[in-house]
Amino acid sequence: MKNLIFLLFNLYKNKFLIILITFLCSFIASLSGIFLIGISGWFITESFLVGSLIYLNLFVPSSLVRAFSFSKVLFRYLERIYGHSVILKTLSDLRVLIFKSLIEFNPRELSYYRNGDLITRMTNDVDNLDSAFLFIVNPIIVAICSSILLSYVLNIFISKISFILIITSLVFCIITPIFIFKYLSLFNDNSQEHLGNLKNNLLDSIDGYKDIILMNITNNVLEKFDFYNKKLESNKFFRLHLITFIKSILIFFSGIILSLILWISINKLNISINASELVSITFIVFVLFEIFIPIINGSINLQSLIQSSNRINNIIKNDKYLYDKNNKIINNFINIDDKIIKLSNIDFSYKDNLLNIKTPILKKINLTINSGEIITIGGPSGSGKSTLLNLILQLENPDNGYIKYRNIDINNIPKETLYKKISYLSQDNSIFLGTIKSNLLIGNNYATDDDLWSILKKMDLDNFVYTLPNKLNTWIGESGINLSIGQARRLCLARVLISNSELLLLDEPTYGIDTETEKHIIYHINNFSKEKTILIVTHSDLIKNISDKFYILKDGRLQLTI
Mind listing the domains of the chain with CATH numbers? Predict the structure, then answer.
């Protein structure tokens, strides 16, 4: 509950005025509806009794009926406009905040979340929060304010009725939501978690459908999918039954309270009130109970709301990755040092949070890279080569030792500044939805078409691009679906090489490329060393030929071979 209140407060604190307007519109619309029914009841009864009356003012009640009808429609319309405006803006802000938070996560932290779980947090969990305002906060405040005002008005006629309304509003606005929440807590309703698991299972099945068919485990996958689906249906069925039960209680108690009010009012008939006023009071109380129904509907979802807020807060409240805590903004490196990167006594271990075990990966790593050098690091898979690059990029933090860039500790350099100086080619082919040109311009937004053709030629991609109908503007699809593995790899490498960064970190740059093309690319990488410093981690023996120094990383130790 604390996370939900904290999250809602931070989301709505800058939207106080529009929220206040929404409350006022909703309050006026509700009162208009209540008074419309009340005056209509009085008017109908008074018209029925007109035969025994000498005079009946038709103008005032008929005018009030029209006024309240128009007021109800107008302010309900305004409530929908302002209410949904603030909700949609808030949900948009929340999605942006979640996405910004996820961007700041390092790869290891991000790996704790599965794709389906993240999708659920950004869609269903976020969408759930709109019901907090529309179906819980707003109805409760409107119901309490309406009950207080009506109690004050009815106190003019019969004081006991106002007391009954106050007690009733407290029961249905405060006690009932708390009861529903506590009751649902006993049954451990994990709908959002089950929904995340369901989406994980679906996405995994889509990604690995070939393996599922080849391994003949279709039935196992379907059983797992059916299990989570039944869990969701069971929770939904339970909530529907609970809603029906609570509404039945509401109707039952409304009948008792109406009977009680009628009994009290009849005893006061022709003393404090007349017959028309009695009917009007009865209608007003009856309509007031309808305001409590949205509160019950919203209270049923309160458990899911709290789960959603907890799941979202796990991402956006992670201060370690949300903000760059560096106070020093270093945009210009005045102390220019030939040593581009220096690693001193670096130790690093991966920690298993479940087993609470640390696995040492790097031990006492010392490495100095001078300007214009090509440094290559080889070694068996899993030895920590990619981890070393992650440490330089501040995607991971070393257990011991320090890393300096241009003789400045990288912890004192904001990531935004650091990433302008360093370009990174990961093992994955990160092709974005768009054209060949748009993907290349990610590396250097100021590159001309001539620059793009030049880098494509060096990557032996120019002839292929020339054959395409739209050439540089050819749509290559998401993840480079229209490219071969080798072509996608060369396009990613071209994007890194065309950048203005002075340090290039290349992780398996020639993976998936045939030998002849690899030799051609290595030749051009060597030429780039005149203007850039390059650190390569690879299994390829051909890259040794262009390296100034070649290291082997094995058993956590870095050994110089040439």
Answer: 2-322 (1.20.1560.10), 339-560 (3.40.50.300)
For the stretch 5-20, pLDDT in tens is 767 777 777 788 888 8
Cα→Cα distances 287→135, 166, 171, 291, Å: 18, 15, 17, 7
Helices (H) then strands (E): counts for the chain = 23, 10
For the segment 425-482, what is each residue's pLDDT rounded down to a tens digit? 888 777 888 888 888 888 888 888 888 898 888 888 888 888 888 888 888 876 666 7
Report pTM. 0.65
- Burial class, 232, CB count within 10 angstroms (exposed 0-12 / middle 13-18 / buried 19+): middle
How is residue 380 annotated by DSSP? -
- 411 touches 326 (CB < 8 A): yes
Which range has highest mean pLDDT (4-18, 66-80, 354-368)? 66-80
* Distance (Å, whole) CA 358 – CA 8: 38
Non-local (6+) Cβ contacts of 256 within 8 A are none
Task: Tell me: pLDDT of 91 over 70.
Answer: yes
**What is the CB-side half-sphere exposure of residue 310 using CA atoms within 13 A?**
11
Q: What is the pLDDT of residue 53?
A: 52
The DSSP line for 104-137 is TS-HHHHTTS-HHHHHHIIIIIHHHTHHHIIIII
Q: How far apart are CA 191 and CA 307, in angstroms?
A: 9
DSSP, res 385: H
Beta strand spans in 180-336 (E): none
Give CA–CA dist 68/166, Å, rounded. Answer: 24
What is the C-alpha separation between 412 and 325, in angstroms, rounded? 9
Q: Bridge partners of 503?
A: 422, 533
Q: Write down the pLDDT at residue 129.
A: 77
What are 103-132's pLDDT values in tens digits? Answer: 777 666 776 777 667 777 777 778 777 777
325-335: per-residue pLDDT in tens? 444 444 555 44
C-beta contacts of 400-404 below 8 A and 24+ residues apart? 400/345, 400/346, 400/347, 401/343, 401/344, 401/345, 401/346, 401/347, 401/364, 401/365, 402/343, 402/344, 402/345, 402/346, 403/341, 403/342, 403/343, 403/344, 403/346, 404/339, 404/341, 404/342, 404/344
**Structure-block tokens of residue 367:** 């490495």
